[in-house]
């Protein structure tokens, strides 16, 4: 009888599916990151014993991460750029609120990695721009005022954030398809 609504799982699958495997990887990673943001304040509270309210600032990034698959419908390149830009802005904001001692700057590394792997060799300008903005954001975050946590809490937060950034880099590498290398140059005559 008329149009049957798609099941939620089918809608999500359709939203995350794209002809370009790099866009599909960006969409999947964006939804994964959006789903992880609400848990971050809990991690902070469990590790530092305080600061969940401060850490809740990361929730501001959820709609931006969720916009990546929607933007992908109109422009795959824009969606691939939006993901690392959202990550950079989220990391800057969280670093500003939590203080540089929390080690959130480690997340600029996966942002740069996204810039490096989500763009093709023919899109080097976008690739270089994302990597450069990641590095500049790292330097900027080092100028932020100290945060409110104890040295012990900061040590634990730094460990958690560093390990999370490393895991995210591994996930990025696992989910993004490699681009074929160009043909080698012929030997000199």
The arrangement of helices and strands along the chain is: HHHHHHHHH
Percentage of residues in DSSP E strands: under 5%
Per DSSP E runs of 2 or more residues, the count of β-strands stands at 0
Number of helices: 9
Largest beta-sheet characterization: none
- Total number of domains: 1
Helix content: 55-70%
Low-confidence stretches: none
Layout: helices, strands, pairs:
Blueprint: H1 8-16, H2 21-36, H3 40-48, H4 52-55, H5 62-74, H6 76-98, H7 108-117, H8 124-141, H9 151-175
Question: How would you describe the overall organization of this protein?
Answer:
This protein is mainly alpha-helical and 189 residues long. The chain has one domain. The chain is built from 9 helices and no strands. The longest helix is centred in the last third of the chain and has 25 residues, at 151-175. It is globular and about 65 Å long. The model has no long low-confidence stretch (mean pLDDT 91).
Write a concise synopsis of the structure shown:
With about 190 residues, this protein is mainly alpha-helical. The protein has helices spanning about 10-15, 20-35, 40-50, 50-55, 60-75, 75-100, 110-115, 125-140, 150-175.
Task: Considering the chains and any ligands shown, give keywords for the structure.
0% strand; mainly alpha; single chain; 189 residues
